[in-house]
């Protein structure tokens, strides 16, 4: 335990870890796999009474939902990046273009390091403190590395993050500017991830909290805040259709968990919602399994998509994504690089939101399904933009001046 922490329960309402496969429960600790069956562990809670008023009186960050997260009650007073409470944009123009009457964009590019990853990392930092870790680490497809660097800097922790060496230049800069160590590995994300698993077992990785490996049960809970915010910003109701990006599948599974918790707590009415997973065609193992009607995800060995942040060939939560998509009446779909580029521009042109390629994937899937008549155009629909277009500039490198002229009215007139 860090000596500076006040003696509040470090995990707030969290009660224990439970196995998603066999239900076996274990004490809250820095473990992520079930000792009985090696299934993934997730956090179970003993929630007290939580009211809409109590939440609304909280800070304009994910900490307004602290009573629903594995964090200490005084978390908002600690040095964190204070992520979340990003805008939910009523997308009239995009809706009109695609045929939706009630479309919203949840724009998570507004987070401190410009992606939804600040949410998950903020929770992992609290777990790192509780377990006495002094270095924060991760394997990353880009955004997570930057989020870890920034959060560690704020929290006074060391950081050392690992990325595949072929990432976008902008993401590499963001991952290194906060002063921690950044190690680029010549390999795919899945190879970087395997390397991190080895490091955890080695004395080199002692006292290291890998946010998405040994702190994964805590980290993953941060994505629930996307669900909470969307419901609250819609006036305490659930959407009817939601399009979510899928890399490991963690965000999608936790958005579903968040919605179900709100229902259980009586904070929203129990209305049906369809969850739609979105991937880039060059790395679409979950979409492929969905289309093949099978439960087993066949890993993609060499991802090849401009949506590099979603390029996880062997997604840990893939089977749960399939289950949620099928159970909710949703689907999993993928889009090509060309469709991703077009969707980034479409969102920018219609709503003034510049998404990274992952946002091009969700908007592209929304368009693809709408064009095919596979979504209800009248349903309350939310599409998630999980990152900032300034981090994937190459994807729209054909954008530039519509004219280059001498500084004269005549020259300008000639361009019209
Ligand atoms: C911008 C962005 N969106 C979505 C995701 C998907 O996250 P998950 O691994 O939770 O599916 C990532 C993951 O790296 C990301 O960087
Ligand atoms: Zn188990």
Quick recap of the structure?
The chain has 416 residues and is an alpha/beta fold. It is built from 14 helices and 13 strands.
Structure description:
It is a single chain. This protein has 14 helices and 13 strands. It has helices spanning 52-56, 92-98, 117-131, 143-155, 169-177, 189-200, 216-221, 224-233, 250-264, 285-292, 318-328, 337-351, 357-371, 409-415; strands at residues 14-19, 25-26, 41-45, 88-90, 103-107, 135-139, 158-164, 181-185, 208-210, 241-245, 274-280, 331-335, 381-385. A 6-stranded mixed sheet has the order 4-5-13-10-11-12, with helices on both faces. Strands 8-7-6-9 form a 4-stranded parallel sheet. It has a 3-stranded antiparallel sheet with strand order 2-1-3. The chain is globular. Bound molecules: pyridoxal-5'-phosphate and zinc ion. Residues 19, 21-22, 24, 34, 36-37, 39 line the site of zinc ion.
Class from secondary-structure proportions: alpha/beta
Mean pLDDT value: 97
Low-confidence stretches: none
If strands are numbered along the chain, what order do they take across the biggest sheet?
4-5-13-10-11-12
Can you list the ligands bound to this structure? pyridoxal-5'-phosphate, zinc ion
| Counted beta strands | 13
Radius of gyration over all CA atoms, rounded? 21 Å
What proportion of the residues is helical, as a percent range? 25-40%
Biggest beta-sheet profile: 6 strands, mixed
Helix and strand sequence: EEEHEHEHEHEHEHEHHEHEHHEHHEH
Task: Count the DSSP helices.
Answer: 14
Span from first to last CA?
66 Å
Q: What is the global morphology? A: globular
């Amino acid at each position: 335990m860090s000596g500076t922490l006040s003696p509040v329960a470090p995990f707030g309402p969290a009660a224990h870890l439970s196995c998603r496969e066999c239900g076996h429960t274990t004490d809250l600790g820095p473990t992520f796999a079930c000792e009985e069956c090696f299934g993934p562990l997730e956090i179970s809670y003993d929630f007290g009474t939580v009211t809409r008023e109590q939440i609304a009186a909280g800070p304009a960050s994910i900490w307004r939902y602290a009573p629903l997260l594995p964090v200490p009650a005084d978390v908002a007073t600690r040095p964190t990046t204070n992520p979340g409470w990003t805008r939910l944009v009523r997308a009239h123009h995009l809706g009109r273009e695609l045929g939706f009457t009630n479309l919203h964009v949840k724009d998570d590019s507004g987070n401190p390091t410009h992606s939804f990853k600040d949410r998950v990392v903020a929770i992992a930092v609290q777990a790192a403190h509780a377990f006495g870790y002094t270095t924060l680490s991760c394997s990353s497809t880009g955004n997570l590395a930057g989020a870890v660097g920034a959060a560690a800097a704020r929290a006074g922790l060391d950081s050392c993050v690992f990325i595949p060496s072929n990432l976008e230049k902008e993401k590499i800069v963001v991952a290194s500017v906060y002063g921690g160590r950044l190690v680029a590995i010549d390999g795919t994300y899945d190879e970087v991830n395997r390397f991190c698993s080895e490091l955890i077992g080695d004395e080199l990785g002692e006292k290291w909290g890998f946010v998405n490996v040994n702190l994964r049960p805590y980290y993953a809970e941060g994505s629930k805040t996307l669900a909470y915010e969307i419901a609250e910003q819609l006036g305490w109701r659930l959407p009817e259709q939601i399009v979510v990006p899928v890399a490991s599948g963690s965000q999608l599974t936790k958005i579903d968990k968040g919605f179900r918790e709100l229902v259980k707590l009586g904070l929203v009415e129990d209305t049906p919602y369809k969850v739609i997973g979105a991937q880039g065609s060059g790395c679409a193992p979950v979409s492929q399994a969905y289309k093949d009607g099978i439960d087993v995800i066949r890993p993609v060995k060499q991802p090849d998509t401009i949506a590099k942040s979603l390029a996880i060939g062997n997604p840990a939560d893939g089977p749960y994504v399939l289950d949620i998509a099928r159970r909710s009446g949703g689907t999993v779909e993928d889009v090509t690089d060309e469709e991703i580029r077009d969707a980034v521009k479409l969102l920018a042109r219609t709503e003034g939101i510049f998404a990274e390629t992952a946002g091009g994937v969700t908007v592209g899937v929304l368009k693809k399904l709408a064009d095919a008549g596979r979504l209800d155009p009248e349903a309350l629909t939310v599409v998630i933009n999980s990152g900032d277009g300034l981090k994937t500039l190459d994807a729209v490198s054909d954008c530039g001046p519509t004219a280059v002229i001498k500084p004269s009215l005549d020259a300008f007139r000639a361009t019209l």
